[in-house]
Amino acid sequence: MDKNGQMTFSDDPLLNGSNEVYQLIETGEFALAVTKLDEMMEIDPDYPGLVESYRTARFWHNREKELNALDDGKDTADYLMTQWKIFEEYSQEKEMTSSSAYKAAMRFIFFKASEHYKISFKKQENTTGDYELLLNLGDCFLRLGEYGNAIETLEYARGSYKSSARLLAILGEACFHMNDIPRSLLYFREAFFIDPSEIDLGLIKARPIEDIIETIRKERPGCKDIREWIPVFGFLQDIFYVKSKLYKSQVETIEKEIYNLEINYQRLSAEQLDDTNIMPRLLNKYLWMLDYYEFQNYNFDHLSQIRDRLIALDRALFEDYFRNPGKRQKR
Known about the structure:
71% of the residues lie in helices and 0% in strands. It is mainly alpha-helical and 331 residues long. Helix 12 (226-236) packs parallel to helix 15. It has 17 helices and no strands.
């Protein structure tokens, strides 16, 4: 109480209790959180945040027995990640993803999963599964906001194994938050070139990608998968301006991919095309070749042919872009 006898926030038992519950959830003490919440619900079941906290604590408490029966390492980490996906869907359905309880649970689950992925990686004798372990560990670090650890883990994975769209997208996001914008944009460009469908947009908060997504929603409101159009509009908006050198083998691969996509494109009607990713992927491949012949291996004839083909494929997007260069941003 203050000197006038009014209740202050520190005197509010439910506020103090809620903060205690969030701490219990964040440290994985779900049984204690449920017990505490039962007491609080008897006082005021409508108190802000109590329902979300109760649902969160109960969800994870119901899984503790199964979780504790698993071996340390990959089994526990994979279980946590699998259950998190279920919890995420449940939280979206109940509109509680912005709640403090949800965020507290996220910090615990991904910290716990990261610790078990570390254990698994250290004791793994058969290295065939190491790449996936490192990817999942990088995912955990990103969700925890440990961007430096995410970069270190995934750069190691990239150097020792292979690159993937998922890996490069997580790297791009981590680099963006470390303020390494050029490297971030390079990774994003390559990720969306390799396979947009592998990328979890729920993880991507980098402003350049959000800007592209906003444009696509305006320009292509009926598109089946926004991810497929991100590299195309990233080019048009000059957001993916950082580019790596293409080797001869890569150029040959892109040319083969264009050939195969063109065959499929010719076989399908406009309505059928709308149900596929052929159009945005074909445009994206041509745009990579456009950059190659403009900046790396200049060839006027090839540039003209590619520009004409892009205009034929999507006049609304490319006619003004190529015919009125003064209107577009400087590249």
